[in-house]
Amino acid sequence: xxxxxxxxxxxxxxxxxxxxxxxxxxxxxxxxxxxxxxxxxxxxxxxxxxxxxxxxxxxxxxxxxxxxxxxxxxxxxxxxxxxxxxxxxxxxxxxxxxxxxxxxxxxxxxxxxxxxxxxxxxxxxxxxxxxxxxxxxxxxxxxxxxxxxxxxxxxxxxxxxxxxxxxxxxxxxxxxxxxxxxxxxxxxxxxxxxxxxxxxxxxxxxxxxxxxxxxxxxxxxxxxxxxxxxxxxxxxxxxxxxxxxxxxxxxxxxxxxxxxxxxxxxxxxxxxxxxxxxxxxxxxxxxxxxxxxxxxxxxxxxxxxxxxxxxxxxxxxxxxxxxxxxxxxxxxxxxxxxxx
Length: 340
Ligand SMILES: Nc1ncnc2c1ncn2[C@@H]1O[C@H](COP(=O)(O)OP(=O)(O)OP(=O)(O)O)[C@@H](O)[C@H]1O
Ligand SMILES: [Mg+2]
What we know:
By secondary structure, this protein is α/β, with parallel strands linked by helices. It folds into three domains: 4-14 and 194-285, Orthogonal Bundle (Helicase, Ruva Protein, domain 3); 27-190, 3-Layer(aba) Sandwich (Rossmann fold), CATH 3.40.50.300; 289-334, Homeodomain-like (Arc Repressor Mutant, subunit A, Orthogonal Bundle), CATH 1.10.10.60. The protein is built from 16 helices and 13 strands. The protein has helices at 4-12, 27-40, 56-65, 84-92, 109-112, 128-140, 166-171, 177-183, 199-215, 224-232, 238-252, 266-271, 273-282, 287-309, 314-321, 325-334, and strands spanning 17-19, 22-24, 46-49, 74-78, 93-94, 106-107, 117-121, 142-143, 152-153, 157-162, 186-189, 221-222, 258-259. Strands 4-7-10-3-11 form a five-stranded parallel sheet. It has a two-stranded antiparallel ribbon with strand order 1-2. Strands 5-6 form a two-stranded antiparallel ribbon. Strand 1 and strand 2 form a beta hairpin. Helix 2 (27-40) runs parallel beside helix 3 and helix 9 packs across helix 11 (238-252). It is globular, with a radius of gyration of 26 Å. Bound molecules: adenosine-5'-triphosphate and magnesium ion. Residues 21-24, 50, 52-58, 163, 203, 206, 239-240, 243 line the site of adenosine-5'-triphosphate.
């Protein structure tokens, strides 16, 4: 079991930061928040890049609600969720009789977003034809309704997001270069959660509070062992996956106030299989043991990389890593490293 004083120390740490609904403590998130605060004030287009579940939409909202447009609409459209024709009529609206079924005039989302912010989600999935039309809105501030002949003027700020490499799409000719530069005036890159694991504890605390609020109960606490498992996992689905795992853990912990490893999902436990066996053996676990294992894992990785880099020249590798040759040989044998 963790010692009570350790827990107290962790829970009283308030050296994380938050902005709007974004929380974190990593350097990269801090830098991102600082950038958001500045760019929100300027009426420029922003491209947000990041893997799925990293918080792109949250960032887009933070930009809008901290900008001069905050009292106007924040309109979201997911460009990959519609067929081309549907997306077009959603974005631009249509005039009565422009196609079968167009029984009355429809306002497009660009009009709804006038004076506000337009969030183009999954912008990389937009067809070339629509890219041209969006470019026109950006360049001239006008568009035509489907079947319409009168240009409509709007003033919208574009915030776009993608989980693809849009630059690569441009190189491959799948995304218009001129539109790319129009959108990518400011670029915000949200790093994946595995590259900022320092954020896992504060995100966890924050998410547990959100879940408690929703369920109208006191927030659950999380044991140090469970937190260590969360920290060690790589989170391919990023913060959204962390949210899902915690939702499940809250359910599986039942009446218990504390989330223990036994309440965590199989997938998480599988990834830390060594941990699981020990945890399941008696339900407790020393922090010292966790640290020892974590260090060993990193060490093994570093040595493997060093050996690859020096083509398994042990003398060179030892020099590179700043340890003695004999020490290196011992470690190679302990970690059962073999040339492949
Ligand atoms: N830094 C953060 N602080 C608090 N909550 C976060 C943070 N980042 C993401 N989240 C939460 O994670 C979830 C996913 O975020 P969001 O929907 O913004 O991600 P996304 O990048 O748009 O994902 P997708 O590519 O799947 O659409 C949301 O519930 C959001 O509130
Ligand atoms: Mg999203």
